[in-house]
Amino acid sequence: MSVDDLLDPALVLPVRGRGVRIPPPTAWEGLRLHRRLLDLDGALPADEEYATIRLILGDLWDTLAAELPEAELLHVGRTAILHYGGSGELAAAHWHLGTTEATPEPVDDESAPGYLWPGDPGGGPIVGDPANCMREWFNDAPKKPTAAQSALSLSWRDVFACWDEVDLDLHDVYGVDVASGVLRRRPWPWLEKRIRDLAMTPGTRLNRAILAPLRM
Fold first, then answer.
1. Helix axes 188-200 and 163-174, enclosed angle (nearest 10)
2. Is 115 helix (H, G, I), strand (E, B) or coil?
3. CA–CA separation, 99 vs 82, rounded Å?
4. Beta carbons of 155 and 206 less than 8 angstroms apart
5. Which residue among 20, 101, 146, 157 has the highest number of C-beta atoms inside a 10 angstrom radius?
C-alpha cells in the first residue's frame, strides 16, 4: 500500500479499465447512512437509494451517467453505499457479484471449513460416513475474540445505542463538539476512526459501555 493510499480514504472502483475515485461523504451523512441501513435491515427504498447514490457520487454522477448504462451506474452507487454505510468487505462482495468477469466454478473441497457442518474448522481426510462428522485431524478452531477485539469489531447498532457516551467522549478526548456543525464539514472516515479508537481505549465511556455486557 502506498502513502497515497494511506492518506486518501476514498473508494476507488475499477470501472471499464480505469480507477474511479469516489470521495467519502461527510461525517454527518455517514452516520445518517449507517442509521438508515440499520433501521431498514440494509435495504433502502428504491427512491431513497437513488437519492443517496446521487448524493454520494456528487458531480461524478453526471460524468458516469454519460458513459455507463443505468444498471452499471447504479451498481457503482450501491457499492459506494455499502462501502461507506457498511464495510469494505460488504462493498467488495457486492462489486464482484455485479461484474461481468467469469466466475470460477465452486470447488467441492472436503478439507474446507464448513464442509461437514457449519462449525467444521476443516482439516484432514474424512473418516467413515461424513454424517459422523469425523476427520483424521482438524484445523485449529478460531480462538474466541477477546473483549478488546470485540470492541474493534463493534456494530454500529452498539454505537447508536451508546450515543451519549460517544458524544461526551468525542468532546473530552478530541475536543469535538458534535453539535457545532463539524460533522457536516469533516469526512466520514475522520469520525469513524475516532469512534473506533474510543471503543478500543480503556477508560472511555464508550469502551466501558460496550465491554460491560461482555464481562457479565
1. 100
2. coil
3. 16
4. no
5. 20
From the centroid of its chain, how far is CA 204?
Answer: 23
Residues in CB range of 198: below 8 A, 6 or more apart: 166, 169, 170, 173, 204, 206, 207
Closest by CA to 211, choosing from 144, 148, 145, 160, is 148
pTM comes to: 0.71
pLDDT tens, residue order, the chain (216 aa): 455 555 678 999 999 889 999 999 999 999 999 999 888 888 889 999 999 999 999 999 999 999 999 999 999 999 999 999 988 888 888 898 765 444 444 547 788 887 766 667 778 887 666 655 566 667 765 554 444 444 445 678 888 999 999 999 999 999 999 999 999 999 999 999 999 999 989 999 999 998 765 544
User: C-alpha dihedral over 78, 10, 145, 149, to 10 degrees?
Assistant: -140
